[in-house]
Design brief:
By secondary structure, this protein is mainly β. It has 5 helices and 30 strands.
Length: 480
């Protein structure tokens, strides 16, 4: 039994390399001169070509012609046929390039190559084009195969379009409108189109999308990744090229002109095979339809020119609900919702006679998501109670805004109350305030009294000294 198993194992070990040699990928040599083709070849032993995938692309090289050759070897009555398909690559310039690892599927079998470094040197005279082939694939000159006839390419219709999207056709001054530029491509047509000179084209497109009289909140994305969407029941890839929320600050309409985007459009081979190019590069320009968004004035109101616009709500917080007279406490007035939070200004409280308000600290958090700009803006007021009593924060503080959803003005008013306890203490009140840097150094300064007439006395003594010096000078001059 052991002998049978060992024999079977050895037979399999011999069979695996033999099977592996039935199909193989052969890479050209490096270095090679600029005027010589680099080659990748697929070699088939005793097989006919039935199915295949394309040869890989190499950065810094352009695919040239392909050809095939057949070699028959008869040894000891055994005939071996070797079919070789070779793809030529023309280097664009001198340098060192990397052929990345790749796979090819031939006759249902996957072949792998680890790739290699390719060094392209300066041109050399009288270099045969087959000099870069592996030695066993070089065919004598008289037997050199002729390139296959040029493949026939057809221009297939593509299902793709460029469009400007706006979520509203009409907005109020200060109301946000989501604007996006999309390129749609049917999933089955992915191999027909590719982006071309994208960065330069987008710079020109962005200049046309800019509006002179708006505040712009741009959605930042580092790379263009497709989204899977459905259009009229068909699967599409959607590429988001630009997105922002625009807040018009004047009643002028937002006008978006017709935009153009040039893409690489491939023609496909009518009868694709491993021996011919499967597609041919060309160009196609896509145009978007112009769009316009109307901007309306806000309804009449005394604060129409200064009120913020958005859908907001109020969140508030008191650091203490019961505070002794002369002690500071904090009140947070936080505006939350959707709108241009940058334009949100703090409320202007009319402080009751028993409380002092100081200018607020401001914190702002903005989130851009799903075509909407939302967030919070927090105003932190510092207050001091000067007289005991119960104080309603909403009595003297309000915040007016315009809600575009209801097309009406609304007001946010505080609801919290604070109780000031104790008797007034003037000294404590003074010490509780931040009176500035002048009073902060008072403890370190000299408190010796200085006469207010000191400057006059110094001036008098200075004049006497000057008169004495003048008299002495006159005496010396007359004596001489």
């Amino acid at each position: 039994m052991r002998v049978v198993v060992l024999t079977l194992f050895l037979w399999l070990m011999m069979l695996v390399p033999a099977l592996a040699q039935q199909l193989a990928i052969e890479l050209g040599k490096s270095p090679l001169p600029l005027n010589q083709y680099y080659t990748i070849s697929v070699r088939l032993h005793n097989q006919q070509l039935q199915g295949n995938t394309t040869f890989p692309e190499i950065e810094g090289f352009k695919k040239s012609n392909r050809y095939s050759s057949t070699k028959t070897i008869i040894t000891g009555g055994t005939t071996t046929t070797i079919l070789t398909i070779t793809q030529n690559y023309a280097a664009l310039e001198e340098g060192t390039y990397t052929l990345k690892p790749f796979t090819m599927k031939v006759n249902g079998q996957t072949l792998q190559s680890e790739g290699m470094e390719i060094t392209v040197t300066e041109m050399q005279a009288d270099v045969p084009q087959n000099a870069n082939l592996p030695p066993d694939l070089i065919v004598p000159e008289e037997e050199q195969p002729q390139p296959e006839q040029e493949a026939e390419f057809v221009d297939k219709d593509d299902n793709a379009f460029l469009t400007i999207y706006t979520d509203k056709d009409e907005v109020f001054v200060g109301e946000g409108v989501n604007v996006a530029l999309y390129f749609y491509l049917a999933e089955q047509d992915q191999r027909l189109l590719d982006f071309h000179d994208f960065a330069n084209q987008m710079n020109g497109i962005l200049r046309q999308l800019k509006q002179a009289h708006v505040w712009e909140e741009t959605f930042d994305f580092t790379e263009i990744t497709p989204e899977h969407v459905t259009v009229r029941g068909e699967p599409y890839l959607r590429f988001r090229l630009y997105e922002a929320v625009l807040y018009p600050i004047t009643p002028k309409p937002l006008v978006f002109p017709q935009l153009r985007l040039e893409m690489i459009k491939y023609k496909v081979a009518k009868n694709p095979s491993l021996l011919t190019q499967d597609r041919q590069e060309g160009y196609k320009t896509f145009f978007s339809r112009p769009r316009e968004v109307q901007v309306k004035e806000l309804p009449p109101h005394p604060l129409r020119d200064v009120v913020p616009v958005g859908d907001y709500r109020l969140a508030e917080l008191l650091s203490q609900e019961v505070v002794p007279v002369g002690k500071t406490f904090r009140y947070i007035f936080q505006v939350e919702g959707t709108g241009n939070l940058t334009a949100v200004m703090p409320p202007s409280p009319e402080a009751p006679s028993g409380i002092d308000f100081f200018p607020p600290d401001v914190q702002q958090d903005i989130t851009r998501r799903a075509g909407t700009v939302m967030g919070t803006k927090r105003f932190l007021f510092t207050l001091i109670g000067r007289e005991a009593g119960n104080y309603d924060m909403g009595r003297k503080m309000e915040w007016v805004y315009f809600n575009p959803t209801t097309a009406a003005y609304d007001t946010l008013r505080p609801t919290l109350k604070v109780q000031i306890t104790g008797a007034p203490d003037t000294d404590a009140l003074v010490m509780s305030r931040d009176l500035g840097a002048f009073y902060n150094i008072i403890q370190n300064e000299d408190n010796t009294l200085v006469s207010v007439h000191l400057a006059n006395q110094i001036k008098r003594y200075t004049n006497i000294i000057l008169l004495v010096l003048l008299a002495v000078s006159a005496f010396i001059f007359i004596k001489r």
